[in-house]
Design brief:
With 85 residues, the protein is an all-alpha fold. It has three helices and no strands. α1 packs antiparallel against α3. The radius of gyration is 20 Å and the shape is elongated. This is DUF3080 domain-containing protein. InterPro entries: DUF3080. Keywords: Coiled coil.
Length: 85
């Protein structure tokens, strides 16, 4: 899941960069500006994706921390874990 979300974010950045370049070439285009605002504005689709990625990361870190599995955490070194079987 993490890699899929990261791929989506990379694709979003590439598209946003390409549209920025197009806007510089075409100049003032109200239709393109409206479309870019809809997808890349503060409440647009891309902002929703960023919020979802942050939420996913926060919840995942909460879960890993609660289980003592965060990298660099107190129990992340398997050599120091007591046997549970």
């Amino acid at each position: 899941m993490q890699s899929h979300l990261a791929d989506l974010d990379r694709q979003r950045r590439r598209l946003e960069n390409a549209l920025d370049a197009l806007a510089r070439i075409t100049g003032d285009d109200p239709a393109l500006d409206a479309w870019r605002t809809h997808y890349f504005g503060p409440s647009g689709q891309a902002a929703g994706l960023r919020r979802a990625l942050r939420h996913h990361t926060d919840r995942w870190q909460d879960l890993m921390g609660a289980c003592g599995l965060m990298p660099g955490g107190p129990q992340s070194d398997t050599k120091n874990r007591p046997d549970t079987y």
